[in-house]
Amino acid sequence: MAITPPSERIWWKEPIARVELWWILVAFLWGLFMFFMMIYWHGAGKQNLSSEAYRTTPEIFMAKTQAMVDQHTVRNESGFAVVRPPPDSDVYLIARLWQWWPSLELEKDKSYRLHLASMDWQHGFSLQPVNINLSVHPGYEMVLTITPDVAGEYTVVCNEFCGIGHHLMLGKIYVVDET
Ligand SMILES: [Cu+2]
Fold it and tell me: Average pLDDT over the chain, rounded to whole?
């Protein structure tokens, strides 16, 4: 640590070393490349979902979800409603401390409008094992048009740390063959 000033008082007015300029150029070009890859992956990489976002409130979203649950619940699993909404309908999934509610049962190769919103603060929707991820915010509903094409049992985990029960925040989506 220097306790005396540098011998050259204007010590920073040095030309940038050539090798450093090259690194700045490489980093800049890489940034540009990744920017365009984001757009490319949107179409070609099955990443970067095409989602829509609308303003909502917890009350409005809760009412819509409750209406769907009242109408289309097919069974209960340890106190959790499993809802089987008809194809092409609007499907609601609530994120709240600390659960995804309700569980959903969807038909394979049918399309749905999946609405996601948070009742409290930010959560992360992460669908496993297919690894589809997006953020779920309070005050907004994210809407995705989905067509599940592989039957099976999927787990929704929260991937946005949301407090003491974060690791317990698990949801279920069943994809079943048409019956
Ligand atoms: Cu969470």
Answer: 90
